Amino acid sequence: MAINQARLWRRLHELSQFGKQTSGGVTRFSFTKEERQAKDLVMTYMKEAGMTVREDAAGNVIGRKEGTKEVVPAVLIGSHIDSVPEGGVFDGPLGVLAGIEVVQAMSEANVETVHPVEVIAFTDEEGSRFGLGMIGSRALAGTLLPEQLQQIDQNGITIAVAMQEAGLHPNEINKAARQPETVKAYVELHIEQGKVLERAGQPAGIVTGIAGPLWTRWTIEGEAGHAGATPMNQRKDSLMTSLQIIQYIEEETKKYTNAVATVGQISVKPGGVNVIPGETTFTLDLRDIEERDRDHIEEAITSYAYSLCADREMSITIEELQRVAPAPCSNEIRAVMEEACRELEIEPMSLPSGAGHDGMQFNDFCPIGMVFVRSKDGISHNPDEWSSEEDCGTGAAILYETVLHLAT
């Protein structure tokens, strides 16, 4: 195996020191001192791998190894180094550092490629600070809108101001955009963040597609009233109605193989222990790798909710927060990854990604492909997140063979 597994492992843990918490987890938000320190270390690794290094207008760190021909599109390897609060060591950084390891292994073996290879550490994939994820990959794909830079963090600081404080120029964000003809393909290595590979006894797997999230906020308005003086058949209880809708969401989503639905936030007004809830608000995160199936679920639950509220003489408002199209992975790149698995004597296994990744921003831009590495107990976004050194090395080896094929 050309990959230096020990070096990759060492770098993972060196990088984890920036933003390290007493819990053992990592908190590293975008445009902070901790992220700057992490970026500087990543740039050092890229230079050690023989790449030329730059930081673009969005703060993306980009290392480039030239190919043997000029003016040909590059193969991109990407992921991120920002984290959620108290996140793990592997989510994001593994993909960036494995990409650097791929290039360094090629350089040490004097392997040349026709196409250039670029490794990118994208800005703010997680969205933990501003509630807008994939800032860097959106910018590179040319889909980041100027008004999105006005989103604020919990201290009221906008993305634009945070960029300025980090030495960037938000009014020049369009300079980060790439033209499609400059990119041949995008590939990414990531931990699975689930239990599918672990239960199958597989160290790594090939992603079939990335589920597209649909985020909505639902507000059900009934009528507040005295908890003791209002008979059950005279109530307009917004919470009880919301709970019926939420139960229907679960039942409907279970009809589809790859769909998942999560009600992650719920609030009740007035909020008194002896007051019937007059208004209930909850969020819905609905995902599927098939947009058609996701739309069918959305239509079914919306129709049910409006009918239920009409029967109970309540009002309903549904606000769309985010709608991202699912991103199918390229069949051609998947075939290359399957062959790479066979060369490493690993049975190719395919699985969908329920979590979002930077690669989905390039779905209409270039062919994309992803490799997942087994996660212990499926834990992620948690200090206990863990993938073994051997599995990380195996995933990097699959990435190496894939990039070598695509760039040659």
TrEMBL record:
Its cofactor is Mn(2+); Zn(2+). InterPro entries: Amidase_Cbmase (IPR010158), Bact_exopeptidase_dim_dom (IPR036264), Peptidase_M20 (IPR002933), Peptidase_M20_dimer (IPR011650). Keywords: Hydrolase, Manganese, Metal-binding, Zinc. Zn(2+) 2 binds at D91, E126, H381. It comes from the Bacteria. SUPFAM superfamilies: Bacterial exopeptidase dimerisation domain, Zn-dependent exopeptidases. Pfam families: M20_dimer, Peptidase_M20. The keyword RNA-binding does not apply. The keyword GTP-binding does not apply. Residues 211-308 form the Peptidase M20 dimerisation domain. GO terms for molecular function: hydrolase activity, acting on carbon-nitrogen (but not peptide) bonds, in linear amidines; metal ion binding. Binds 2 Zn(2+) ions per subunit. Zn(2+) 1 binds at H80, D91, H190. Homodimer. Belongs to the peptidase M20 family. This is Zn-dependent hydrolase. It comes from Domibacillus mangrovi.
